[in-house]
């Protein structure tokens, strides 16, 4: 079995504290593998069997390889994931001062599991846009060191803390950055300008705006008595991005292949660079010039939507359907929902099961309890946009949407192995 090294994922997570940084990390890996960067604003001159990538908004990326076989007749093998994760984002006018403490107002992005954000060593990363020498520029920044925290209220002052405590996102989440003295005040944009100088050597920048998120500065790690688990932030869904990228870089050149990793999945994907926007379709139409080739190729293609699944938690087993409790380290999970929250159907599911059989990868199934709601992915959105046959899969995970999630260390290798087999597959359903 191909066993993708966990250290590669740990490094990827460390270098990808925001969707912008995740996209940058993937660009670097693709460039090192000989992929050519394309600009959407320019005319593309694509060559037979060429390897390319294109980004949008610095936070979404599509990498593609043109195979030896005509994609209109043999389809495109597509893997989709997303670059964003639930987090706390800094507000436009964030400065708060109370009782000598400097805090920042934050907005909750996505379905954040809030309680684990307390008492963590937080850092800050993202994109900053500024004026420098009369030119508008943008740069990515990452403070890396712990610069903030959200202290819990002592249980002596909150006797309900362990019996059901509703967290107020407006008043209880602003992180503390520093303690001020006397009449001292702080300007957040000045702090960002100083970081631009430290990180990029840019002096006298006038910061105009930013998209910044707090993150846990504790690095991801392989843990457990027998090293069974990967613990870290943003496993949902950077683990899938990393697995898809690794599979693409190790696949052969017979068939055309795409990896699409888009932003804003955690808030519905409805954006210019999200899966519910035109990014993927517009790239495909530039690869497949004629309308006939475009439609034929889509109908010959298949998309694997890779996004983490809920593993059965031993302390909360009743939250799962009794026949559908995926276990960590027992292989990827096929996600099914009768109401099309997942795009899996019997044919795409059977194709994936056959791939797993052929590659000796264990496979599991997940269906939400009938009396509980179900999340969704980019799978149904992309299927609805393109009309491409799709399957939703993912590795089982604990604590999804927490500041620190948990996955099985073996499942990374399983996922890479089956995705690589998919990229190399001769026949699609």
List the helices and strands and how they pair.
Elements (H helix, E strand, L loop, with lengths): L5 H9 L4 H14 L3 E2 L13 E6 L3 E6 L5 H4 L1 E7 L4 E12 L2 E9 L12 E11 L2 E8 L33 E4 L8 H13 L5 E11 L4 E3 L5 E4 L2 H16 L5 E7 L16 H9 L3 H10 L1 E5 L2 E2 L22 E3 L10 H14 L4 E3 L11 H9 L2 E6 L1 E3 L6 E4 H15 L6
Parallel strand pairs: 1-2, 4-13, 4-14, 14-18, 15-19, 16-17
Antiparallel strand pairs: 2-3, 3-13, 5-6, 5-10, 6-9, 7-8, 7-10, 11-12, 12-20, 16-18, 19-20
Helix pairs in contact: 2-5, 5-10, 8-10
Cα separation of the termini: 25 Å
Question: Mind telling me the CATH superfamily name of the largest domain?
Answer: Zn peptidases
Number of strands: 20
Number of domains: 2
Strand order of the largest sheet: 1-2-3-13-4-14-18-16-17
Portion of residues in beta strands equals 25-35%
Average residue pLDDT: 95
Q: Count of helical segments?
A: 10
CATH hierarchy: architecture of the largest domain = 3-Layer(aba) Sandwich
**Per the principal axes of the C-alpha atoms, what is the gross shape?**
globular
Structure description:
It comes from Denitrificimonas caeni. This is Probable M18 family aminopeptidase 2. Zn(2+) binds at residues 82, 156, 401. By secondary structure, the chain is an alpha/beta fold. It has 2 domains: 6-85 and 233-423, Aminopeptidase (3-Layer(aba) Sandwich); 87-216, Aminopeptidase i, Domain 2 (Roll). The chain is 26% helix and 27% strand. It is built from 10 helices and 20 strands. It has helices at 6-14, 19-32, 71-74, 188-200, 235-250, 279-287, 291-300, 346-359, 378-386, 409-423, and strands spanning 36-37, 51-56, 60-65, 76-82, 87-98, 101-109, 122-132, 135-142, 176-179, 206-216, 221-223, 229-232, 256-262, 302-306, 309-310, 333-335, 364-366, 389-394, 396-398, 405-408. It has a 9-stranded mixed β-sheet, sandwiched between helices. The chain is globular, with a radius of gyration of 22 Å. The two termini are 25 Å apart. The model has no long low-confidence stretch (mean pLDDT 95).
């Amino acid at each position: 079995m191909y066993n993708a090294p966990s250290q590669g994922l740990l490094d990827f997570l460390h270098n990808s504290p925001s969707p912008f940084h995740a996209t940058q990390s993937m660009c670097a890996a693709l460039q090192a593998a000989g992929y050519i960067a394309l600009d959407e604003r320019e005319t593309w001159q694509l060559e037979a069997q060429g390897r390319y990538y294109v980004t949008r908004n610095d936070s979404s990326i599509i990498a593609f390889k043109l195979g030896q076989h005509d994609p209109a007749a043999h389809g495109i093998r597509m893997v989709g994931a997303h670059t964003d994760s639930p987090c706390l984002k800094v507000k436009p006018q964030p400065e708060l001062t109370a009782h000598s403490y400097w805090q920042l107002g934050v907005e909750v992005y996505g379905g954040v599991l809030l309680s684990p954000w307390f008492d963590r060593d937080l850092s800050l990363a993202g994109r900053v846009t500024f004026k420098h020498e009369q030119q508008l520029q943008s740069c990515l920044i990452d403070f890396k060191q712990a610069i903030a925290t959200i202290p819990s209220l002592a249980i002596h002052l909150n006797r309900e803390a362990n019996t059901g405590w509703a967290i107020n996102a407006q008043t209880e989440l602003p992180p503390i950055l520093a303690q001020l003295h006397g009449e001292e005040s702080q300007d957040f944009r000045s702090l960002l300008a100083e970081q631009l100088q430290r990180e990029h050597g840019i002096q006298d920048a006038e910061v105009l705006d930013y998209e910044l998120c707090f993150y846990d500065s504790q690095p991801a790690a392989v843990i457990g008595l027998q090293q069974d688990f990967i613990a870290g932030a943003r496993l949902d869904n950077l683990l899938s991005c990393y697995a898809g990228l690794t599979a693409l870089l190790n696949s052969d050149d017979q068939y055309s292949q795409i990896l699409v990793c888009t932003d804003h999945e955690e808030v519905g994907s409805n954006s210019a660079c999200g899966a519910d926007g035109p990014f993927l379709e517009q790239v495909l139409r530039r690869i497949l010039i004629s309308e006939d080739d475009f439609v034929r190729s889509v109908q010959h293609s298949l998309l694997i939507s890779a996004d983490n699944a809920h593993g059965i938690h031993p302390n909360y087993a009743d939250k799962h359907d009794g026949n559908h409790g995926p276990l960590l380290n027992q292989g990827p999970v096929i996600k099914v929902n009768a109401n099309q929250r997942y795009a899996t159907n019997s044919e795409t599911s059977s194709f994936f099961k056959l791939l797993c059989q052929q590659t000796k990868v264990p496979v599991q199934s997940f269906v939400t309890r009938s009396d509980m709601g179900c999340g969704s992915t980019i799978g149904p959105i992309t299927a609805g946009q393109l009309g491409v046959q799709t399957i939703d899969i993912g590795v089982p995970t604990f604590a999804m949407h927490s500041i620190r999630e948990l996955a099985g260390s073996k499942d990374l290798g399983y996922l890479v192995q089956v995705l690589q087999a998919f990229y190399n597959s001769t026949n699609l359903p």
